[in-house]
Structure formats: structure tokens, C-alpha cells
Amino acid sequence: MKIVCVSGKTGLSRLATPTTFMGLIAFLTPPFTLYLPLSLAIILAAGAVIMMIFRILGWLPRPNLDLLPLLAIGGLMFIVALSTLWSYAPEHSLDRLPRTLLAVLAGVIFISAVKALDGHVTRTTSRCFLSGMAMTLFLIGVETQTGGMLLRNSIDEDTLSSSLNQLNRPLSILSVLIWPAAVMLAARHWALAFSAVGIFAAFLPFFITSAAIAAVVVGAVIFSIVYILPKTGAAIVGFVLATGVLAAPTIDHYLPPPEILFDSLNLPRSTYHRLLVWEFTTQRVDERPILGWGFNTSRVIPGGDENLDVSEKALPLHPHNAALQWRLELGVLGVLFGAGIILIVTEMARKHSAGRVARAGAVATIGATFVIAMISFGAWQTWWISAIFLIAGFTILACRRSVPG
Q: What pTM did the predictor assign?
């Protein structure tokens, strides 16, 4: 692909190229994730608009989108929109709907732009992403060793400890982004990849961030499986993850009650609360098992404001589990499309990755994203949807087969 510069001799026009803007997005995403994770929605939206302008100007080739994932994502969004017709709280559904659809549209545009990049732009963008990740690892180390030196400049000392815990959300995203970074580093030397993952993992115990730790551990296990089984590993992982999505609403029937698990395993209070939320959610799923309660109705489900124990609300805003939220709000079709998306993206990782390491890294990224989605955030949070598409873009950048040019 030949990149055409703007006619004219100004320095600004020379900078206005896909290489510059994709490199800037790649460099800024990791540090902004650390300190301003909600800004990921702005980064994705701005990137999508800029890439659309470049496409209109002819600076990017026509996007070559894969039909199957596009149909799966479009199908899920169709169910999301359709569910507003029978929603328990249509005002909540309609309020969130435009933001969700726009975030997904921006994500599709961003992915199409990444797929259109040639070898030169890909290499430059990859270097920018690695530079951003390196700076972010350094900043995490500074915050860890100094007790939040940078945070201390902007907050009150009395709230420093709780503010450090607010890094849990950024660390969850970075626990996924570390895998495409590891693939890029492995292309240079295995030791660099191991060092990056090891350094990041070593920082995590300094924070109360079980989700990030779980994502790194699961990512490492999946990486090993797919690397050892290059022909079948991705399919096995995809099947297991998709089955987990389908089975999520029934897991309550096989596990002991949360109270017994809390006492017998000495679980943290936060984990106990999460189990109570999931138990309550599965009970509400049984009340509307086919169509669900409607898009974005988790926060107003009947009984959700009641305390199930001392201070544990039954359903605070969302179930903290994407599979349960899909089933609760969108019914059977929602969870089927969700499982289908997982199967499709793991198959694409198997089919289109550049080699053994890239395939293992791509599927590890999918697995780590799955972990975060199933224990942390609301499925429709705009910044989280944006983060998923940015992660997907950088994974394609790191793992796809080389594009000539």
C-alpha cells in the first residue's frame, strides 16, 4: 500500500498520515489505560473517525472485513436493539443503546483500518505500542515502589491507599495487552517476552487485583496449550470458553451455596459478594429464560437493591459476568451469539496467525479477555467495549501474517 501525503509543504501535512496517527494511538493506549482507562472510549472513537477520513481521502485501501465475525457481532447488536421492544425498563435500554452501537461501530472501523495497514506502517505502529507498554511498566514500577508517588500529587494522602486500588481496573486491561506485546517481543528474542510478562506479573501482588492475576495465569496456561498443540489447541480453548458461556447460568446448580463456600474456603468478602450476585442473577434468569429482561436492565432487576447479607446487595448495577448478563438481559439468543463470537475469533486466531508463537499469543489474549469479562466489568460499559476492540486491533497487529508492501 502506498501512503499518499497531503499536497503542500507544511510540516503538519507531512505528519497527517496513517502511520503517524496509528502510531500515536498505539503509544498512548497503554499509559492512558493506566491512569485514564475511561478515555479508551475517546481514543477508539477518535481513531475510527480519523481512519474514516483517511479512507475517504484514499490514503487507506478498501477494508477487507471477514464476514463471519461481522455477522456474529451484528447479530448480537440486532438482538440488543430488538430486546428494547420487550424490555422490563425500556428507558434504561434506550438510554444505553446509542452509545453501545456507536462503540461497536467505531471498533469495527478501527479493526478494518488495522487490517489495511501495510508492512511498514505495521512495524512502526508495533514499535510505538511496545514503547507505550514499556513506559507503562516503568510507571507501574514507580507507583509500586514509591507508594503511589504520581498519584500522591493529585489526591489527598488519606485516600492514597484506596486510590492505588483504583489501578485494579487498568491492571486488568493491561493483563490482556501484555500478550500481544509479548508476541512482538518474542519476534526479537524469547527472553524479552518472558521478561515483560514476568515483570508485569511480579508487580500484581502489590495491588488487590485478583482479576488481573487470574487473567495472566489463564493467559499463560492457554499460551502453553496452544504452543504445545498448534493444530488443535486453539479449537480446544475456543470450545471450552464457549461452553463456559453457555453453561454459566447453570453453574449455580452444581456449586454449593455461597455461604458454605465462604465459610469452608475462607473466601474474601468481595469474592463471597460476587458469588451471591451470581446466585441471584441465575434465579432471575429462570424467570425470563427465553427472551430475557431486555438490554441494560440489570441495574433495575426486581430485588436487586436488597441486601443478601450484611451489606452485600443482590445486584449492584450488573452481574460482573458477561455470560450471565447476556443471558439475563438478552435471553437464549444473546448467550448463543456471545458463545459464537468466541468460537469465531479463536478460529480466526488459529487460521490467520503468523506462526506458532503468534497463534499461542492471540489465543492467550482471547482467554485473558474472557477471564476479565467473566469476573469484572459490565458487558455494555462503553470504555470496556472500546478496550476490547483496541485489544483486538493490537493483537491483529502483533499476530497476523505479514502483509506485502
A: 0.92
